[in-house]
Structures are given as C-alpha cells and as structure tokens.
Amino acid sequence: MPELLSVRNLRIEAVSHPPGEPPRRITIVDGVSFDLQKGKVLGLIGESGAGKSTIGLSALAYGRGGAEITGGEVILNGTDLLTLDNTGIRKVRGARVCYVAQSAAAAFNPAHRLGDQVIEASVRHGLMTKEEARKRALYLFGVLGLPSPETFGNRFPHQVSGGQLQRAMTAMALCSNPELIIFDEPTTALDVTTQIDVLAAIKHAIEETHTAALYITHDLAVVAQISDHIMVLRHGKTVEYGSVQQIIEAPTQDYTRALVNVRQTARMEASDQTSPLLKSDNVSAQYGNGFKVLHGVSLHLCKGQTLAIVGESGSGKSTLARVITGLLPPSEGKITFNGKTLAPALKNRSRDDLRRIQLIYQMADTAMNPRQTVRDIIGRPLTFYDGLRGAAKTARVKELLEQIEMSNGFIDRYPAELSGGQKQRVAIARALAAKPELILCDEPTSALDPLVAEGILKLLMKLQEEEKLSYVFITHDIAIVRAIADSVAVMHRGRLVRFGPKSQALSPPFDDYTDLLLKSVPEMEIGWLERVLDTRRMESAGN
Amino acid sequence: MRLREIPITAWVGMFGIAIAFFCALFAPLVAPYGETEVVGGVWQEADAQFFFGLDNLGRDILSRLIYGARTTLFVALAATVISFSLGILLSFIAAVSGGIIDTAFSRFNDLMMSIPTLIFALVVLAVLPQHLIVLILVMAILDSTRVYRLGRAVALDVAVMEFVEAAKLRGEGTTWIIFREILPNTLSPLLAEFGLRFAFSILFLSTLSFLGLGIQPPAADWGGMVKDNKDGIIFGIPAALVPGAAIAALAVCVNLVVDWLLKRTSSLKGGRGDA
Amino acid sequence: MSNSTETDSLPGQRFRERFPLLALVIERMLLSILLLFAVSVLIFGGVEALPGDFATTYLGQSATPQAVANIRSELGLDRPIVTRYFEWLGGAVQGDFGTSWASRNSVSEQVGKRLGNSLFLAGFAAVIAVPLAVGLGMLSVHFRNRMPDKIINVISLAAISLPEFFIGYLLILYFAVNFGVATFPATVYDGMDFLDRIKAIALPTATLVLVVLAHMMRMTRAAILSVMSSAYMETAELKGLSAWRAIARHAAPNALAPIINVVALNLAYLVVGVVVVEVVFVYPGMGQYMVDAVTVRDMPVVQACGLIFAAVYIFLNMLADILAIIANPRLRHPR
Hints:
heterotrimer; B: mainly alpha; MetI-like fold; 10 helices; about 75% helix; elongated; disordered C terminus; C: mainly alpha; flat; disordered N terminus
C-alpha cells in the first residue's frame, strides 16, 4: 500500500529568548522520520518539550510560535508540503489535513455558532455546498455521540461542556473528509471518566470515516488503545518506533520501558492500621461564596504510613489538604493530630503545630521563590523554627542536600538553574528541614518525566524509612497508589466514597464510582478500551 | 543584566536624564547668569552671549532653564516618591490582607479615579493655599491612585503563587511576606511604573504651572516659563518653546528608559512561562 | 416582572436570569449614578472640609471680622453644610449652579454656552482622531516588528511625552504666525457660520488630535495583537482560510469590543485634554472658564465645572463598559 504521509529527516528550529541572555537558535526536532499509510493511526508519545506537537503541525507545514522547519521532507500523497507556496498549502489545510487542538475551548471562536465553525472549512474550500456540509456535520455529531445533533450546531462554544467541545472539534476536523487528522492531546484536559467517552467517540469516528490520523499524547496507555504504530520521542529525537504490539510488549529502550513498566517500587501494606496520627472527623468545608466543597469526610492515617487520596479534579482531594493545613478552616468537624485537636485556622496554630505538618506542591516551579537561592529556600525553615544561623545553618543545609541526593554545589543556585526533578527535590528538602511528622504531597510527580518521577518516589520512600515520616499522598494515578499506599481514600464531588487499607479499598466489591474510576483509567494493555466498552454494553443491555 | 544588552534608545534616555539631574544639582556652577537676574532687553534674540535669548523680563533663558530644572525635577521627583510609597504600601496591604480592607481601599480608589486627575487638582487647588508642600502633596495623592491600581494587580499576581502560600503555612508574618516574598518578585514592573509616574509628574507639574496653579514666580520652573513667555508667540518669538522643548525632551528620555524596562519585564515573564 | 407568581425566587433574581445582559447594563448604569453622587459629595463636601475660609478669600486677608461675618451670611456660608449641599445638588440636578462670586452672573448660563463649544471642539477632534488611530493601529499590527511598526512606535512614544501646550504653541508659531495659514486666537461666537467655525478651531483640533492619537493608537495595537495571537486565529489559519477571511470573520468580531473600549476611554481623555488646549488658544469653552475661576477662587463656578467634567468622564467610561458588555457573546447568548 502506498504511503499517505512520509516524513523524512525532519528538522525544526526556533529562536529562544532566555531572559538576560542574547537570543539563540535551539533545535526542537532533530532528524525524525516516519511513514503513515491510508486509514492508519500513528501515536506520537513523549513528555512536554519532546517536540511531538511540533512534528504534528509540520504535517500542515505550520510552525507555532516562531518554530521553523529547516530541514527534511513532509510528503503527503507524493507532494512535499514544504515546497508549496502559500496558496498551495492553504488548499491542503482544512481540506486534506485537519487539526484537533488540545484546548477546544480556546480553539473555537467565541463569537460564532459551533455549526457554522464546523462546516466553514468544507464550504470555503468548495468541497461541498452549505447544505451538504450541514448534513455531514449532523451525521458526524451523531457518530460522535453528541446530545441532540439537530440543534447542537446552533449553540455557542461557551454553552457546551469541555468533553462536548472536544467532540465538536473532532467533527470540525472530519467534516471536510480529510485524508489525515492531527489529534493534539485531545483528551488531556478532560477528566478520566470523561476521557474514556471522548476517546471511544474519536476511535469510532476514525473507523467510520477511514481517515488516517496522527495521535499526539503523553499517555502511552491512551495511545495504545487507538494507534496502529507508536513513535516514542524525547528531546526532539526518536527513542523508539514500532508497532503498538512491539512497543507495549517488547520495548527495547530504557525510556520506553520506564513508560511501560510504570513502577518498579512497591510497598508492602502495613499490617497495623489502628493507632492514628492524623484524624479527620466528619469534616465539611465551603468557600466564601457558600459553595460547599467537602461533605462530612472522616478518615485517618497511622504513624509512619502512607494514605493515598484519589479522585478527579473537583473531587475535593486538594481541598481536604487545605483543610488539614489550616488554609481553609472547616465549617464542621475537626482535624486531630497526635491525639490533639488542631486549631481550625492557620493563624491560630502554634509555630510547633505548623512545623509538624509540611506540604509539597505539584509544581515545584511556583512553590519556590524565584529570587531566593537553594540556601535561602532550605535555610529559612531552619532559622524560623530552630533559630539556626551562619555556619550551623549552612552545615545543616548541606546535610539535607545530601539526604535528597544532591551535591553541595547546588547550594547557591537559583530555582531557574535547576531541572524539574532537582526543584522537586529541593522542595522536599525544605519540608524535611522543618523536621515534620507528616508531609502532605499534592501530586508531587504528575508534572515530571516518568524516569524522574520514579526517582522522586524512591526518594520519598527512602526518607519515610529514615525519618519515620507519614505521608498523605494526593494523586489521580492509580498505579502510584498501588505502588506506595498503605491505605486509600477515594473522593468524588466532595464526598469520601471509599476508605480503607489498600488491599480492601482496591478489591471488589466496589461502589459505583470507584468501579467507574478504576475502569476509566487507561491500562497499558492493547484492547483495553474495547473490553471496557463491551462490559458497559453488556451491563446496559442487562438493565 | 549586561551593559551591552541595553538598547541604544535606553542609553539616550539615561543620558538625557543624567544631564537634567546634573543641571539641577550644580545649577549655580553651570548657569552663566542668576535665576532672576535681568541681563538685557525684553525678548532679546539669541546670540553667542545668550544661547537661547532673553525672556519677557530680560532674564537669560538658558540660566533660568538650568535653575528651573531644580524646581521641576525636585517637585516631580518628590511627588513621585510620595505617591509611589503611598500607593505601593496601601496596595500591598490590600492584596495581602484581602477581605474588608481590600474592598474598602479599592472602592475608595475607584471613586478617586472616577474624577479626571487634572479636574480634581483644579478643584482642590482652588481651595488650598498656594504652597510648594501643598502642591507636592496634591500631586502625590492624586497620582497614588494609579500606583495603587497597578500595585494591587501586581501584588495579587504574586500573592496567589504557591511560594507565598508556603510562607504562610510556615507561619511567617505579613511583613516578611510583603518584603521578602512579594516585593523582590515585583521590582521589575514597579520600576517601570516608577519611571512612567515620574514622566507623568513632570508633564502634570508643567501643566499646572502653565495654568498658573503650580510653582509661583519668581522661582523658575519649566511650565511657568512657558506661561511667562507665551505672549511672545504671536510676535514670532519662540522663547516659550524652549522650556516646552525641555519638558518634552525630559519626558521622552524617561519614556525611552521605561519602554526598555517594560520590554525587559515582559521577556522575564516569557522566560518564566516556558519553565 | 411584577406578575411573578413563583414565591421561591426574588423578582430581581428572576429578571437577572431571564435578561442577564439587560441586568448587567442596568447595574452598570446604577453604579455610574452612585459614583456620580459620591463624586458630588467629594467635590462639594471635600472641598469645604479643606482648610481655608472662603469669606476671607473672597474679601482678601485685610478684611475686618465684621465684613467677613456679613459676607458669610450673604453667601449663605453660615448655614449647616448638609443643608447647603442638598440645596446645591438639588439645583445642579435642575441645571441651576447658582451665581458666580466673581462676576455675579448665573453660572448655568455661562456653562450652557461654553459646554457646547467644548464638546464641539472635542467631538471634531474625535471625528478625525478615531479613524486615524484605529487605522494606524491596524497598520502597525500588519507590519508587526518590521520597519513601519518600529517607526510608528518611536514616534508615538515621543508624542505621548509632549505636553499639550508645547504642541499648541509650536503649531501657532508655524501655521498662524510664520505661514499665516491658520487663525489665532481661536475666537468663536454665536451665529458664526460652520465653515468659519471649523477654520477657527483648526489648530486646537490639530493639537488635540496629536495629543490623543498616540495613546489611542498604542492601545488599539495592543488590543488587536491580543486577538490575533489567540488560539482561534490559529484554528482559522489551520483551516486554510485566506488572510482576509480570517481577519474579517474571526478577528474582527472579537477585536471590536476592545477597540470600542479603547476609543471610549480616549474620548474621556480628550474631554480633559480640552482644558489646556482651550487656555492655549483662548477658546471660550468650559476649560478656560474653569481655569479662570480657579485662579480667582470662584467656588460656585469651580464646583459646577468640576461636576460637569466628572459627569462627562464617568458617562464615557460607562459607555465603554456597556459597549464591551454588549459585544461579549458569552453575555449575549447565555447558557
């Protein structure tokens, strides 16, 4: 079968403007080649900054934000797109190759109705009349499972939900019957339970219309459900390229293995979970506008153990952490720590109470003052809680750096001079400096490259052994929960729906929500999506 | 920051500001004649002896321009420093405290800003005694409303950052949070705003003096010099344009520096965004 | 909404749900009225609370205590401030601003004549400045970061640094005195025919246009740039639409609101700008009237002018906000 799209030795560069330095050219994509056949799907996978979106856009001969294609060929059905003039490339865009953006909310024009935007490209390119295009849009709305397809097109973008917008964007791309569609992280901004539906709709629509697709994502489990081939990218270079089968079942590179194997760390569940260090008794909370975000949450954590709190965005898991720290005083209930009731509000807690509970944030970038050096960042709690100054303080900072496996040379660096993983380590050291008993970890690894995240998790577990620390670990990643937790709490819409030792919480019989959540989290397994959809169909047929 | 990255326009601006400050500081040494000294005929033309000619009373325009730099720069700078300190202090307190304090301060500020600055100044100066301190205070208070608005926006931007929350969680007091966590991260935009307010103060003072409500004669100040010599214009005598050009040149210089500072700020933000 | 039969929601809430756009506009109007009321308190009460006795000012420092007492009762200054405020406000609402201390004339009569002159001048300047500024702003965006944009940037930066009176006298010196193609001073009188009037205000108009142009242009440029860099413009480009279609269909409807806002804000700025320009050109408008009154501390005139300028300014700001509300598709098409 002839190739639909052939990318040969693609090289993309951009001019970067680092603050306080002269601008310089950087290479975003370096020597990438692949082929895509008609009706097939190729998954491009990698971390942010791996160049995957840039490669996707090159199939439209488009460079975002000053990126420039400086070498190679992008051949679509025998024509090198990079040699076309403006008029030539415009005839390709929106007609033969279409694009689905990550944030449909921003990519739709707020001033026009969805229907008009969906058919615009087909009509403007003269591929169909307005009537034909409308009919096709109606058909596609139906294929994509949008509610009341007849009237859906009359709505404005802000009048429909995020999941529906993403499907509408897919309909917009499919409308002109293109040969190729670029999906740029179409489900990343969605909740897990919404993601599965959109994913299924996209897969169904691709099969229905026999279009080829480039599917870009950072989630290998997602791409395994939808692709025929996968290309793993890192720092703009190809790491591994092969069939889905080969990548998932027999990866040859360390990086791919890290993506596939998920966790090498594993923790035996503590047997005794009866003497609580932290207790939340029937805690409810609301924001200033009276909007209730937590409803009577009761749970506990034992000394030296890890409690994982799982839930989607808006489930109240981060709010619970804010209540524990005192940032948001509960409207009802109380927090007990070491058998003593904590003052509800931060300002009424003693300095020693504050010292015992520390917090690690998801984004280490914003959690550290960019104008302070590592010495100041780690040293401040030492001065503040223990009155350490001068040489004693420096000596202790160096000890802490050693504990987080970083050399003394980092002591006078600013956060901007550290890598993502190093920043998170410094944030951990800052928490350790207070000699806490409990550390709240709010998704500390979800913004990191999987290899780096693995290192952070190992470090946290090592420190737990050494310092007898207890963790509350907030995450949406079930795999991490399986790896590190002693007990698990599942939250949904501000309520605790499940709580108990890991072995019980993650085994059947499940409540409805936990069941849905566990089933929605994509698994690193080919055919998982079909299996879940089949189960659902059977269940609904049984009803 | 390296010197060679400063654009040529910013150098021009800094050079101009430096000249003005030099004239202001060493006026008696630099000026060829006295501030109020009558040295020749009314509106005598410029020649080798009197570089810009003489004014409506026969005083040397160049000398008065140099002395005038003193008054103009001093009043504008004093007003800017006061307005800035006041505006930043109040806005940071509002941003960090939030709640009723924030609402009260901000609503009052909205009210003050709903009257155009010049009109407000005219109404107030119609009542108050004519005095240099009064003038400086009126300029400062009116201008501080603009500083307040920017200061609050900038401080709120930083105050919601997690490192500020981390400091609160540690138990740090308001003073530490304002001066050690927020202020160092807002210096760049605030510095640019200071320049902007300074340029505005120079223009505003000149306007008030021109309208006869600013600095009172016989002290020389640039806006007042325009007023003194404006009647010469219809006879084709450009004496009023010389101090006018000085005001314009100084304001241009300050704006050139501000423009560079603003661009630097935005590129800093861009640098942070991609991390 | 008075025929509401449901008791579970207040009429106001129901109105807000059914007509969110109208509710917001009405809210914004009420806010402006409240603001204007607060401003009147500030202008009247605040001024009276400041140190300085009007009677002494009125008569001069050497007046005898008896004369001061007489004049205080004659001007009504001996009565309580609250009473006087409401009398003043009541009059102002009906268009009566009392009598000038300096000329003993009715303030309203003078204001009536001069307000028209000022608005004519500002309006004429706006008619020229607005299309020019928006056009230059678009040009600047079109040539973004290339030579024409950079030149426009440097010139506009210089222009915002020029004091109004400097531009004014420069124009007078060249066009009225040296070349003799324009008139100075800008005298206008009742019954003057339109063309002569335009000719008389040519220079003050040019000054105002120059003053306001740079600001408006820079703000227009920023507003258009922010629309052009939004994600839906990328979508339009990736749909293969022509540049013209992308701008007309996708950029324009979204850029309209911010541009209208910029224009209204600058019109407010223009109204204040007339004060200095009128003094420079000896033009018989509100600005000239107010400055003269301030110099002789003629309080009824100062307060009247202050209130009117503030009212125009508040009105234009309100207009800017309301137009922005109406132009917002999220509010026009509620969920």
